[in-house]
Amino acid sequence: MSRRKTERLLNLVICLLSTTRPLSAEQIRFAVPGYDPANDEAFQRMFERDKNELREIGIPIEVQKDPWEDDPGYRIVKQSYELPEITLEPDEAAVLGLAAQVWQRASLAEAAGGAMLKLKAGGVETDLAEGPLELRVDTRDAAFTPLWEAVRDRRAVTFHYRSGGSESVLKRVVEPWGVLSRRGRWYVVGHDRTRDGTRVFRLSRIVGDVTPTGRPGTVEVPEGTDLRALVAYGGDDPGPERTATVRVRPGTCQGLRHLAREVRPGDGWDEADIVFTDPERLAGWLASLGPDAVIDGPPDAREAVIRRLKGALH
Amino acid sequence: MNDRLPRLLALVPYLMSHPGASVPEVAKVFGLNEKQLIEDLQLVWMCGLPGHTPGDLIDVSWDGGEILIDNADTIARPLKLGVDEASALLVALRMLGELPEFAGGEVLGRVVAKLEQSAGDGAAAISNQVTVEVEAAPGALATVTDAARRGRRLSLVYYTPGRDEITPREVDPLRVALVDGRHYLEGWCYRAEAMRMFRVDRIQEVAVLDVAADPPAEAEPMDVTQGVFRPSETDELVELEVTPAGRWISEYYPVEEVEELGEGRQRVALRARDQGWLVRLALRLGDSGRVVRPETLAARVAETAKRTLANYEGSV
Questions:
Q1: Residues A125-182: pLDDT tens digits?
Q2: What's the count of helices (H) and strands (E) in chain A, helices before strands?
Q3: What is the pLDDT of residue B1?
Q4: In whole angstroms, what is the distance from residue A138 CA to residue A144 CA?
Q5: How many domains does chain B have?
Q6: In terms of CA atoms, which chain B residue is nearest residue A204?
Q7: Binning pLDDT at 50, 70 and 90, where does residue A234 land?
Q8: What are the pLDDT digits (tens) for B64-97?
Q9: B243 and B199, same structural domain?
Q10: Which of A258, A272, B211, B267 has its CA 20 to 30 A from that of A282?
Q11: Cβ <8 Å between A258 and B159
């Protein structure tokens, strides 16, 4: 942006803040340097653009239209513009300093940095976090920013999605209720209009762009929506807990022994009880342990292990 | 987007609330070099109230490097926080609230209340819809954090799933990191003679030694921007072909290259320090993936699968 334009916008902000009664476009044209005094159309276009730019950075311009006036009047109300007085105790400032570093280099870093700058400008002494605690959340998925905006603006989105293990990519129209980071992965939860049901999507499985569809302010988050619970179970029943019996060679399979409910020493093999819900997940883990572990049952989990091992033969 | 105007609208109030601040100090706060800051000051100096007579303009001086500002009362306060700005901080604060150090403490509550007050309803609403889940504090966390604070050496019994090994280690802690909701201890490991990240939930036993931490000079915090575990350039490059059921590989591990082969199949290239880990990975994949390169690894996978299946023979 040119220096002249920045100057004009800053003067416009000062002008609209300093006036107690709304000013017409014509009054503003002569009060703020840089507007075209000769060409009406050029001025109108420029003034419209300037108003939009100020609104984009969060400046509330009030428009007043009185029935007895031909033209609307504009002003900025101090109370809705200014950061209210805010003071932080030293312990509060320390906590805020920690919070501010969380998004470093993630897509919200700029927003957090902007907030901290405004607070500092408002005289709040914020400590830069020092010490041995480091906090970081990453938002590497390109879908994060458009989904954050969609949640913020309460509008539906369209994207293409590949479900886990699926060959095809399908189009989804989703009313997002929220986004959640769990074990390093981001999920979006919402109402899937295509499937007419509650669904959880992993951001890393979104293919291509996320496009807002529908008007802002139209998504209603149902009362009592529990994002954590929905992501934890993916909307499905995780199934009952069962116990597998696994034989392991003495001195091997340390991780398994640590997680086992019980390990009974035996002749050549120790026997471990492992609690599981999903036989396929269990099978992947046990197959990875190679010849040091043998599963005796239940039969479906045992079959799943054998199937994986046969699949790895070639 | 224009970022200079928001900066100027914060710069003026900053200068009003910090009279006499030095040019280098202010430049640092705003992430500018000194020349850029002076250009900002020169621009501000040309602005002011309608009329724009000398008495209407903002008065700025930076003689001798001390910045003084006057006649800028209309923009003496910064602009209120935007929804994104306040939410970014609120989401982070709520995440902090899940840490044992802050749980139940009222400090967080006070900060959240003050921020919500200065930001309006929109920010409070969205910050409830964006959640960073933090794992339940592992048993070793309090001890590890305390040792990092006091600079004491730690003795650990640590489980490495990649090699399925439990090893004793002595570690000089440098910091405790919460990355994407998981706790890590970063420190100088005397067993590896290198910096290492340890997942705190994989520490099976921990004791603080009566020895001051004394890491060597080359012990520098690691850059975790690209994820906590990064393979080294010198590790062997391995190529796998996976079916849709094996696509989790590229979501789960740092991979060098992913090529789509159609119908959801992928060719994935990744580096790993440890061939044993790769064999385990291939066994886990079963028929949802196969090693393309190197052939020695593919042969080792087939051989291990065969030996393992022998355990099941006769009783199938």
A1: 876 666 677 888 888 888 999 999 999 999 999 999 988 777 788 999 999 999 999 8
A2: 11, 13
A3: 47
A4: 10
A5: 4
A6: B251
A7: low
A8: 889 999 999 999 999 999 889 999 999 999 888 8
A9: no
A10: B267
A11: yes
Task: Give the CATH number of domain A144-233.
Answer: 2.30.30
Structure tokens at A89: 């105790």
pTM summary value = 0.83
CATH code where residue B27 lies: 1.10.10
For residues A178 and A220, what is the distance between their CA atoms, to the nearest angstrom?
11
Q: A20 touching B, CB under 8 A? A: no
Q: Over the stretch B97-126, which tens digit does the pLDDT of each residue have?
A: 888 777 767 888 899 888 888 776 677 778
Determine the number of helices (DSSP H) and then strands (DSSP E) in chain B.
10, 12
Contact B305 A310 (CB under 8 A): yes
Domain boundaries, chain A: 3-81, 84-138, 144-233, 242-311
Q: Between vectors from CA A105 to CA B96 and to CA A150, what angle results, nearest 5°?
A: 75
Range of the domain at B31: 4-75
Site of tokens 């280098």: B24
Interface test with A, best of B58, B80, B185 (most A CBs within 10 A): B80
Residues B70 and B88 in one domain: no
Cα–Cα distances in angstroms (integers) from residue A65 to residues A17, A68, A71, A73, B38, in the given order:
18, 9, 7, 6, 41
Please check whether the domain covering A3-81 is classified as CATH 1.10.10.10. yes
Sort strands B194-199 and A262-264 into parallel, antiparallel or unpaired. unpaired
Closest Cα in chain A, distance from residue B214 (Å):
15
Q: Which CATH number covers residue B199?
A: 2.30.30.530
Residue A239 contacts residue A278 (beta carbons within 8 Å): yes
- Minimal-distance CA residue of chain A relative to B43: A7
Alpha carbon separation from B233 to B188, B236, B256, B271, B316 (Å, rounded): 21, 8, 10, 8, 44
ipTM value, please give it. Answer: 0.84
Contact A202 B96 (CB under 8 A): no
